[in-house]
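To close the section, here is one more complete example, presented without commentary so you can practise reading it yourself. The ligand is S-adenosyl-L-homocysteine.
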Amino acid sequence: MINEINFDNIDITSGIIPETEPERQYYYMALCRKMVKDESERLKRPLTFFIATFGCQMNARDSEKLQGILEEIGYVEGKDESADFVIYNTCTVRENANTRVYGRLGHLNSLKKKNPSMKIALCGCMMQEKEVVDKIKSSYRFVDIIFGTHNIYKLAELIFARYNSESMIVNVLKDTELVVEDLPSIRKYPFKSGVNIMFGCNNFCSYCIVPYVRGRERSREPKDIIREIEKLVADGVVEVMLLGQNVNSYGKNLENPISFAELLKEVEKIEGLKRIRFMTPHPKDLSDDVIEVMKHSKKICAHVHLPLQSGSSRLLKIMNRHYTKERYLELAEKIKREIPDVSLTTDIIVGFPGETEEDFEDTLDVVRKAGFDSAYTFIYSKRTGTPAATMDGQVPEDVVKERFNRLLKVVQEGSEKYCKRHEGRVMEVLCEDVNEQDDTMLTGRLSNNILVHFKGDRSLIGKIVNVKLNESKGFYYIGEIAE
Ligand code: SAH
Ligand code: SF4
Ligand code: F3S
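Output:
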């Protein structure tokens, strides 16, 4: 396991490169370690790195793995893009995620001119698109390394290749069957961590680019997941978030199939682990057995993020979501009935091609009836290569904006109403951070994912304390520690 490897003991003089993973990467990490050490002795200062992460929890977790590799090979974390090694881990789920990356790249070029030893790497979902890579190769030639979502584990090998080549290194795989275990990783928070349980997505919702850039669904072996969580717990983690694009289909394609509910039960048994979250379940297959496990669990948090996308059964069909408005509402109701104090949150898209006023009214109707504590609302963004991109009836911008604002209002009214229901109660809070506005206060999270701000000492960070929820402020509380 990675913690037990002494990279300085790896023989890099023989020239024999291991063919299997992760041994091959350990070898390249050892090579890079020497390179970074030499370079830093020459410059008489440590070499720094900076990773900017765009997009979802998957990318956030990938960035922790990239950071783990960089630290292993001797880079130290820098504060911004003036670092010696800069990585943009990109997202392409909506056009604006894309635009932001191009915007920041221009700035990187000017920084690189000031620091000739600087290296720039681009990775993540955007890099899985051929047009993007072509554009960077022709118009952003100062970029050093491009890699995709399927080979982040190869970072050391790619860095080594770049140092031994005159030109840009491009290494993007179309898809992979491989799940490489036992690579280094760091954690942004010492007390909580994301844990991938699966990669990729097979659902092909008609608006979504994720299946094209993250490849086919692959589950990790339960024993590898459990072993990773046990190690995290031994290292001080009390909360894990199990990550997958559709966690309910976890394990179906493993040699020894196992269901998500069964995995949850196994994770629950890990001693010392206090909280379990997961993201994202798909309404089409959130099964009764998962609800049952949640109901009886002492550790699984009372929060279900259940993406709705649209309340119109007609649109849901065209979106390829495989559920109807009625089925969604039934499921929401069941979750609320079975799991005490649960909080339900969602994702909604406004302006999907062909969305009529009536379809939109259906979405508002579900928001009013389902009782969401909060909702992420998105304006539909056309993604080239997805079926929806060529559908008729793209909705005019002004109509979408107007609907979007109406939706926001209904979502906010709901948040205020639902969040208030715990006012006055004492509930368990995991202390996460010093409050951003007032450093005598802490910010923590309830099991149902709602934030609470309260007076407290920073020594409590990472601990679970009882907090009285004095006042609801919409989607957060002001509270005080209860004895
Ligand atoms: N796997 C998760 C979501 C991944 S993407 C799921 O199925 O729910 C996160 C959210 O981005 C989606 O829930 C959706 O609401 C939004 N999204 C995806 N593609 C989009 C697009 N083309 N335009 C606007 N929003 C989109
Ligand atoms: Fe995209 Fe649908 Fe897969 Fe979620 S389930 S990642 S929305 S295709
Ligand atoms: Fe974006 Fe990729 Fe996540 S496209 S939302 S970073 S899976």
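Once you have examined the tokens, check your reading against these statements. The chain has 13 helices and 19 strands. The first helix runs from residue 23 to 43.
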